[in-house]
Amino acid sequence: MKFADMPDQYRDYASSKVVILPIPYDGTSTWMKGADRGPQAILDASFHLELYDIETGTEVYRHGICTLDPVSCPKDPGEMVAELRQHALPLFRDNKLVVGLGGEHSITVGLLQAAQARYPNLSVLQLDAHTDLRDSYMGSPYNHACVMARANEICPVVQVGIRSMDIEEMDSIEPDRLVLAHDLHRHGINAATNALDQLTDTVYLTIDLDVLDPSCMPSTGTPEPGGIDWYMLNQIIQYVASEKKIVGMDVVELLPRKHNQAPDFLAAKLIYRSLSMILTDSLNP
């Protein structure tokens, strides 16, 4: 299955600006399992997308969107990270905008390592309900609860939408790079601009779908009440895309539900909308 119902001429690797990399990994989830089914659910739902984006007035697929075969990852999370890094390195070196489809959040580390090898001045924007700053969890430093602790070892991180953490993570928090969900509800995008402005010129974007409120995104393994909505999420991405160069991204933690496919479509549309915002300048005359 490929991403979106678009003409085959826009799927060729050599001429595509965007590469979709499905990563069906669910090795460290600690509550509800099933994120390994997320990539296929996103690809299935993407075939129902309209290819014209109203907000940007563009058809971003004309840049080319190549979908690669799913990565077969080892179960061990450390080995998975190493495997993903090797998969993603040539993609970034070919100047592709890499989009990882999770899978759970631990996949971000391998993708980020590969991106930083290509872009040394990289920073990370994490959109998430959870800080994910534990140094180790359930016996592994590569657990999904540790992903931002590992990211901090690679490059600067800005965290937005947070509303859940453990007290042991407090020492790792950088207050000027942390935006809590309740502040976004009270003050809108203005609550985030100071933190977002601290991102470097080159950004990797990681979106844990539980950053959204469960009322619009119930299909995650660790839902948290009080999340942001669709328009706030897009507003944050638009702000960064207009100021910085986003060179890679992932969308993680979709746990598909057989009897509710709306969240699958939301994830697919979020990817297409994000690409439209990231690449809009080069599409417009």
TrEMBL record:
Annotated keywords: Hydrolase, Manganese, Metal-binding
Free-text comment on the cofactor: Binds 2 manganese ions per subunit.
GO annotation, biological process: putrescine biosynthetic process from arginine, via agmatine
GO terms for MF: agmatinase activity; metal ion binding
UniProt binding sites for Mn(2+): 105, 128, 130, 132, 208, 210
InterPro entries registered for this protein in UniProt: Agmatinase-rel, Ureohydrolase, Ureohydrolase_dom_sf, Ureohydrolase_Mn_BS
Keyword Ribonucleoprotein belongs to the record: no
Cofactor(s) demanded: Mn(2+)
PANTHER family: ARGINASE/AGMATINASE (PTHR11358), GUANIDINO ACID HYDROLASE, MITOCHONDRIAL (PTHR11358:SF26)
Family named by the database record: Belongs to the arginase family. Agmatinase subfamily.
Protein name: Agmatinase
Organism: Desulfocapsa sulfexigens (strain DSM 10523 / SB164P1)
